[in-house]
Design brief:
Number of helices: 10
CATH topology of the largest domain: Rossmann fold
Shape: globular
Bound molecules: adenosine-5-diphosphoribose
CATH class of the largest domain: Alpha Beta
CATH superfamily of the largest domain: TPP-binding domain
Length: about 240
């Protein structure tokens, strides 16, 4: 694969858009690929409001496992490069579909988390959201008010958080360099982001070892792994 390094000084606003493939190289399973979570677990039983309302313990067990697995993994070179780019350029946004907090663990700041985070819970009864950074399972499954807590994650059929969505839209519709890494491009509205970036005139780059649903939208496609491609794309 012939990768040409990008001169970030040529771009005013840069967006990195990441999916499960970004974390896959750290050892976090993807959702749809080989060994993907949705092959092993029916999302209808573990990752939707209905499932949580019917059996919150089962849904918490599943998400405790996600936390424990994430903690066994560490950010890779690709995550570090994104942090380095953010520290070397005045306008870099990171929009991720990942809920594992791996970007933050690599030191990246202001990560726009489209699908929420396994490191936060909310109480729908008292209407609050809090971090739960316990190094393992969630510290609490119920609120002091007695209600079940809910992992602050966007599950199947959930509405996306409007404020988060707006931040992502703003960043992507104003960027002039858009780099998508490790997403199959099937889940909306994230699947529409390469279109949005393209229509805003951004140079669009995809890093993914396999074709995605949106591959034809990109100006350059690197068929490789995030941890191999990113250090070659960004030499700082
Ligand atoms: N580097 C880059 N890409 C990779 C790597 C890697 N090392 N390994 C795998 N990939 C690619 C796969 O080829 C695939 O296209 O990552 C992609 C992972 O796709 P999905 O599992 O569908 O993950 P994602 O696109 O992030 O899913 C979106 O779906 O179920 C929901 O909420 C969940 O956020 C998730 C959303």
């Amino acid at each position: 694969m012939d990768i040409k390094a990008i001169n970030i000084k040529k771009y005013e606003r840069i967006v990195f858009f990441t999916g499960a493939g970004m974390s896959a190289e750290s050892g976090v399973p993807t959702y749809r690929g080989e060994g993907g979570i949705w092959h092993e677990y029916k999302w209808q039983e573990y990752a939707c409001q209905d499932a949580w309302e019917k059996n919150p313990e089962k849904v918490f067990d599943f998400h405790d496992l996600r936390r424990e697995e994430a903690l066994k993994c560490f950010p890779h070179k690709g995550h570090e490069i994104i942090t380095d780019v953010q520290n070397s350029h005045p306008d870099v946004s990171i929009v991720t579909q990942n809920i594992d907090g791996m970007h933050q663990r690599a030191g990246t700041e202001n990560v726009i988390e489209l699908h929420g985070s396994i490191w936060r819970v909310r109480c729908e009864n008292e209407d609050w959201i809090k971090e739960d950074l316990a190094e393992g399972p969630f510290a609490n499954r119920t609120c002091d008010c007695g209600a079940w807590l809910r992992p602050d994650i966007i599950w199947f059929s959930d509405m996306l958080n409007q404020a988060v969505l707006q931040k992502a839209d703003e960043a992507i519709s104003n960027c002039d360099l858009f780099i998508s890494i490790g997403t199959s491009g099937v889940v909306w509205p994230a699947a529409g982001y390469p279109h949005l970036a393209k229509s805003s005139g951004a140079l669009c780059i995809e890093v993914n070892p396999k074709p995605s649903e949106q591959s034809n939208m990109y100006d350059f496609v690197y068929r490789g792994k995030a941890g191999d491609a990113l250090p070659k794309l960004f030499i700082l």
